[in-house]
Amino acid sequence: MQKLYAFTEGSTKRHGLFKDIQMKYYASQGVGKKIGTLKSLSDTRWSSRAEACQVLLENISVLLKVLDSIIYNGKYDSGIAFDALSLSKCIDFQFGLCLVTFTDILKLCNIISKYLQNEDLNISSASLHIESLISTLQGYITEAYFDQLYLQAEKIAEIIGVTYSEPRHRKVPTRLDDSEHHAPIVLTGKYRMKEQFFNDVIELIKEALQSRFSHETMPLLKSIECLNPPKAENIQDLRVLSSYYIGDFDADLIEYEYKLLAKSIELSNIGKIGIHKLYLYMVKEGMAKLYPNLNILYRLILTLPVTSSACERSFSTLKLI
């Protein structure tokens, strides 16, 4: 994908050819789509990768026409034409299946990614969204879901004029002491793509998410909700939360402060206004000094980032200076 982007957008002439063919193609199909360009992949941002896959999926027919035009019209030198031919050969059925798969999965992940980058992020609810994403990905490993993706890939293959070709497998020599029961099972066609590609992709993304949000940190994120607002019945969640900050405050005394604050919040009818606003209310009413251990805990939680997006935004802004 990155090579296709670099080849097409690396020259104003090839970029102009892409736009011209795209306009003619949309006009012939009666589609009033906005003219778009291929997008570069990003090493860090889910959003960029999702957009890059979506744009390429929508314009794969246009891109092939561009490559064919460069190969056969004789207006480009032999080196450029050879590069176009090489890229054209790479766009086969397997490429279409990969593109359909990653477009669908990355669009799903991008929803949660954007939420995690929100400045008004609720950390406690973020843990629930992460768990729902992992659970949804786990549910994707089914024959029915893969069949839907495979059917989409077949439709794309039909549009761009390619067919599935089974890769050659090395023949394993049969030993005299081998029987047919010991012969290795060789998966072919759709079953091979599901086992050796699709399932591995799902597991790789799940492992990345579980590595970032491990079983050690998820209880911390979930227990934060006990501070918004404090309630006497959530004392157990407070104990879980306090266990992550042993030595920062008095773990025994904080439970008494928590009960008193919970009653004060209940009598004031503040409701669920968010941890940040609740802490500001505590400071305004002098409760931060009255409950010093809770004051420390609130400050620790308010400075706990679930992502590094805030830091990345700061560095991006500094580049403009």
From TrEMBL:
<dbReference type="GO" id="GO:0046983">
    <property type="term" value="F:protein dimerization activity"/>
</dbReference>
<dbReference type="Pfam" id="PF05699">
    <property type="entry name" value="Dimer_Tnp_hAT"/>
</dbReference>
<dbReference type="InterPro" id="IPR012337">
    <property type="entry name" value="RNaseH-like_sf"/>
</dbReference>
<feature type="domain" description="HAT C-terminal dimerisation">
    <location>
        <begin position="289"/>
        <end position="318"/>
    </location>
</feature>
<protein>
    <recommendedName>
        <fullName>HAT C-terminal dimerisation domain-containing protein</fullName>
    </recommendedName>
</protein>
<dbReference type="InterPro" id="IPR008906">
    <property type="entry name" value="HATC_C_dom"/>
</dbReference>
<dbReference type="InterPro" id="IPR052958">
    <property type="entry name" value="IFN-induced_PKR_regulator"/>
</dbReference>
